[in-house]
Amino acid sequence: MIPLRISFVQLCLGFILLIGTISALRSEDCEVCIKVVHKFSESLSDETRKDPKKIEDEFKKFCKSSKSKENRFCYYLGGLDESATGILGELSKPLSWSMPAEKVCEKLKKKDNQICDLRYDKTIDLKTVDLKKLKVRDLKKILNDWDETCDGCLEKSDFIKRIEELKPQYVHSEL
């Protein structure tokens, strides 16, 4: 009878561990959050890391130089002056306890689900990509990344022609 109870307890513990690993946040589920929290955490001194208020102040400084998706992440947390709301305490307290970035992001996701909806833009390899297969939105993004415009472009072929004209200037082939 006792061995049966022990195996039942072992089975229950195994099930709990399995559920814990399934529900754990993976880096691709919340890539911007995990990368930013990790990068920010690494930048903190040992003294700052122990005080949640100092962590919040440092995060606001950190956010001033952020761009694109990382800036949007800062906005969601309240790290920017123009942020509508703020949940910096949900970041600073766990970091002061030395919680890993994945767990911090898991807590943040519970407070604001859109935090984990942020994704980095995929880079397009212009040496190998077939421009005809890209969407106009992607073609516009390529030009925008180059700080170029396409005046008078109405058709997809116009954008492709403009990118082909500018390609030698921005895409360097290795010898």
TrEMBL record:
Q: What is its main location?
A: secreted
Its annotated compartments are: Secreted
Q: Could you identify this protein by its name? A: Mesencephalic astrocyte-derived neurotrophic factor homolog
Organism whose genome encodes this protein: Thrips palmi (Melon thrips)
One GO cellular component term, please give it.
extracellular space
Q: Where is the signal peptide?
A: 1-24
Q: Which InterPro entries match?
A: ARMET-like (IPR045333), ARMET_C (IPR019345), ARMET_N (IPR045332), SAP_dom_sf (IPR036361)
Return the similarity comment.
Belongs to the ARMET family.
Residue ranges of every copy of the ARMET C-terminal domain listed in the record: 128-170
What task does this protein carry out?
A: Required during the maturation of the embryonic nervous system for maintenance of neuronal and cuticular connectivity. Essential for maintenance of dopaminergic neurons and dopamine levels.
Pfam family, any one: ARMET_N
Which Gene Ontology biological process is one annotated for this entry? neuron projection development
Protein keywords: Developmental protein, Disulfide bond, Secreted, Signal
Q: Which Gene3D superfamilies match?
A: SAP domain, Saposin-like
| Domain ARMET N-terminal, residue spans | 29-124
